[in-house]
Automatic annotation (TrEMBL):
Keyword Endoplasmic reticulum: no
Species the sequence originates in: Vibrio fortis
Protein name per UniProt: DUF1566 domain-containing protein
Signal peptide location: 1-26
InterPro entries cross-referenced by the UniProt entry: Lcl_C
Stored Pfam families: Lcl_C
Taxon lineage: Bacteria, Pseudomonadati, Pseudomonadota, Gammaproteobacteria, Vibrionales
Annotated TM spans: none
Annotated keywords: Signal
Domain Lcl C-terminal: 292-402
Amino acid sequence: MKLQYSFIAVSLALAGCGGSSGSDSAAAPTYDVAGTIRSQGSLLDTPVCIDLNQNFACDSNEPSAKSDNTGQFTLTSTDKNILNSTILAEVDAGSSKTLRIAAPGQGLASGNSINAVTTLVASLVIDGETVAQADEMVKAQVTSAGVSLTGTVMSDPTVNELTNLEQNTTALLTEMKVEEMTQGVALVAKKLSYENKSLVSGLLSAAETTAFTQELSLVVAQTSGSNDTGAVLYFADGASDVADAQTDFPGQDAEYGFDKDDLQTATGAGFKFVKLDDKGATLAADATEWSCTLDERTGLIWENKSADTNSVQFKDRTFVYESDTFEPYYEDLAVVGCVAAGDNICSTSEYAAHINQQSLCGVSDWRLPTYQEFYDVLDLGETEKDADDNVYGLNYAYFPQQGLGSPDVETGAVWLDDFSHVNYSAYNYDGGIQFAIIATKGADRGYVSFVEIYSDKVERDSGTSYQFPIRLVAVKGQ
């Protein structure tokens, strides 16, 4: 049975509760986080902190301590959040270099281990995964490389089976710039290989490590920006969508950001899009045919969909989700677009592989977008509508082919490379996972809801779950 759960995103202003006015601060309870740095080299007086802002640096306002010569440390704070926050160690790697390694907060007062492998898990948690999901993602890649683990990655990150991964990751972390680590380490964790060479089963040479680090730096630099919302009109008393700012209703979205300060004629908002041909060459803004759209704010390139029902890139062609850790459900496979087409391009991974083989727009590293990447490209000020009078959610001038979405949820949603553990997860079938769908057309564009997606582990004869179209993304220069 198909269930869809609604979700309303709200921002909460959280006040610290380490103490209260009028009370003796000495009476406030304290919390400890203790553990051991598992790294080579001299560990005496190594700075360790709770990385509250997740920037891979021990800032002066964060709870901190120094380790002893065996790498053991204890962090103490009146803030209970330290139990579930990232633990960071800044190890002296010699030659004026610092090895920044981390571990995800697991609610443990003691027994925390920090090494390069735990840093991979921590980076995925920072990227939005739960500790369990992040651990599973890393372990699945370890398993696919032919290495078997008896437990989870975090249960023993120093086992011999992870020695190559530890050494390779340590070498990369030592070379990475601190300002690039939040995104860069997550990129490594999501794909534990370089030039088809596994970080688990072999060791990178010094030259390969340098080249990999430089490539990561390039990717981070090209995807460091973000877009505005596209809202250029204002709410007024008794009216909406007016062009002038309202003194009675100050602080509206349209008063700030690129949509006001760097409005582009071609998009009617702050979006800076460029049309590309199938080789990746730039086209004029008034070109009537193009294959991809470059987002100059973020450095991301988006696939342009097709109106041709016979094309594998048809805007409404549906696919099942597939990844290294997720195999699709057999009933879903029986109803997706490949069945009628007869081309065996049925899943998200098969479609990405096909488009990469074509080197669409000169790019061979196409993938599903993340939740953040796709939400960032939504144009909440777009006014163009489809034949059913539903307003589009992407800029129509640069994304004219916007589909219905899932046949069961016709809100324009597409597959994203993110799954969530939410309150509804408790009601999943065994083998089902929750997927956040972003409404991309209609009055509810930008609205997020959750649906359950079945894997091959769900019991037979449970019916279909959900299938969605795809709009791939890549990084400029890849």
